[in-house]
Structures are given as structure tokens and as C-alpha cells.
Write a structure and sequence with these properties.
Blueprint (H helix, E strand, L loop, with lengths): L1 H10 L4 E5 H4 L11 H17 L3 E6 L10 H21 L3 E3 L5 H4 L4 H22 L2 E5 L3 E4 L2 E4 L5 H10 L5 E6 H6 L8 H8 L3 E5 L20 H10 L19 H17 L5
Length: 280
């Protein structure tokens, strides 16, 4: 239950959580298909549960499946579900919701203008909801994509494309999320490393997804167990005056009945890791 998850997080030493809307709420049934009153009551109860354990809901995670290059109904679905995601974010008291770029895994190798125009159309369609609910659309840095077994650079992994799209969003309700694992994974395609990415994006970075990998796969490993240069990452965060949460995005699927023990370890480990700015 969510109550139990909050209890485990608090006992493990965490101060905030990233509430993942992506996996919990299908649009077709359940809470997202319920009445406005039921929708609002549900997320009110989620918020009160987090508050009971003195946990901040620092961000929410919207859909990773966004616009489709062919299926118009999928575009309409994405539009509707993102509206629900942003409303839920406001009800939870979180300042920002991650709304992913269109991704090259679904779109394939398209001309740059196709990717730019489709992504911009998607974001422009949801800006009114961000402004209605007064929550930020958070653009997350991307990594590699997989197409028929081939690994390629995701189009929006490039910092120039990222910034071009971000700057097109004509709203005050926008922010940046640096995913260290994604950015590091894309270095094999000559994308700049996370620390340089952070410096280029600058003060608009208010969210983090901290995790590690070997540079070839999005493993979501514990920071310090892959090949990211964490001292450089923390130095870059200091340089831009980062004031947000140090949010981890780790894979927990391997731990089964040992999950609580692992969370307790991660809580203590990450507290020291952050306090020491990625240094041993």
C-alpha cells in the first residue's frame, strides 16, 4: 500500500518522494476514469498520507508514452492523460510533473523538423493545463533509444535540441529535470556528460533523477556503482546554485523480500553520498 511505502521511505531516512503517475493510473478505468469528485478525493488522500509521514511530494512522473507518429488516437490519448497528470500533480501539492519528449524508440529516424514540430505541438497542447493548475511542465534529459534491436541516440538527448524545445515553451510554468543516467548513457553518441549538461542548462534545473550506469544501458543503478563522475556532477550543481531535492530513480525490481533492507541501506548511503558531494 502507499501508506506502507511512505512508512518504509520515512524509516529509511528519505525526506521526499517522486510520485509516479505513469504506472499507477491507466486512463481507461480506475481513478483516471472516475468522476471529478472521486479523482480529487483520491489524490487528497494520497497527499494526506505523505503528510502523515512528513514526506514532501517533490515531483510527479507523467507518461513516458507520448505522441505517436501515425496513430492520431494515441495523440488524443496523450493529450487527455497529460491533463489528468497535471491536475493530479496540483492536488498532490507537487510543483512539477515530468512530461517526456516524443521519443525516437517510437518515432524512429525522422527528419529533425518532424521531431521538432511534433514535440512542440505536443507541449503547446498541454501548456493551458499547466497554467490552469499552476504546475510546471518538466522536460527531462534523454539518452539512447532502441529501434529493432539497434541502439541510437535519442533525438532530444542533444542539449541543443533540448534547449531549443524548452525555449519554445511560452509559459512561466516550465522547468528542467536532469536525468544523470540518461545523459551518461548518451555519451557514447558524443552527447556531453551530465556535469557539462547541468552547467549549460543552468539555473532552470530544479529537478533531478539521480542514477548510474556503465554508459551503455539505462540500468538505474545506485549512484557510485557505475561510471558517472559524481564529484564533477555535484560541482556542477553547486555552480548553478541548485536548491532542489536530490531525487534518486533506482531500479528496485531485483530485491523482492529484501526491499525494505535495501531501502534502509539506500537511505543511509545516499544521505552520506549527497553530504559528501559524490566523494567517497
Amino acid at each position: 500500500s502507499f501508506d506502507r511505502a511512505c512508512e518504509m521511505c520515512k524509516r529509511s531516512g528519505f525526506d521526499a518522494i517522486d510520485y509516479n503517475l505513469e504506472f499507477l493510473y491507466p486512463l481507461e478505468h480506475g481513478v483516471y476514469a472516475a468522476s471529478d469528485e472521486e479523482f480529487e478525493e483520491h489524490f487528497y488522500n494520497v497527499r494526506k498520507t505523505a503528510e502523515k509521514y512528513d514526506l514532501e511530494i517533490g515531483q510527479t512522473h507523467g507518461r513516458s508514452e507520448t505522441y505517436d507518429p501515425i496513430d492520431q488516437s494515441r495523440r488524443e490519448w496523450s493529450h487527455k492523460v497529460t491533463e489528468k497528470d497535471l491536475k493530479a500533480t496540483a492536488l498532490l501539492g507537487a510543483p512539477s510533473c515530468v512530461v517526456h519528449f516524443i521519443n525516437s524508440t517510437r518515432w524512429g529516424k525522422q527528419p529533425p523538423e518532424v521531431m521538432r514540430n511534433a514535440s512542440n505541438e505536443m507541449y503547446q497542447n498541454v501548456i493551458p493545463y499547466a497554467e490552469k493548475y499552476k504546475v510546471n511542465i518538466a522536460l527531462e534529459t534523454f539518452g539512447a533509444a532502441r529501434i529493432y534491436g539497434d541502439r541510437i541516440r535519442d533525438f532530444f538527448a542533444d542539449h541543443n535540441e533540448y534547449l531549443m524545445q524548452y525555449n519554445k515553451l511560452d509559459t512561466q510554468y516550465k522547468t528542467m529535470c536532469v536525468d544523470t543516467g540518461h545523459t551518461h548513457e548518451a555519451e557514447s553518441f558524443w552527447v556531453i556528460p551530465p556535469e557539462e549538461y547541468i552547467r549549460i542548462l543552468g539555473k532552470d534545473v530544479t529537478l533531478l533523477h539521480l542514477h548510474d550506469n556503465s554508459g551503455h544501458w539505462d540500468d538505474h543503478l545506485l549512484p557510485g556503482t557505475g561510471t558517472i563522475k559524481w564529484e564533477a556532477v555535484f560541482d556542477a550543481l553547486d555552480d548553478i546554485g541548485y536548491q532542489g531535492n536530490y531525487n534518486c530513480e533506482l531500479s528496485l525490481r531485483y530485491y523482492g523480500n529484501c526491499l525494505e533492507d535495501y531501502l534502509h541501506f539506500v537511505g543511509r548511503y545516499m544521505r552520506k553520498f549527497v553530504d559528501n558531494h559524490g566523494r567517497p
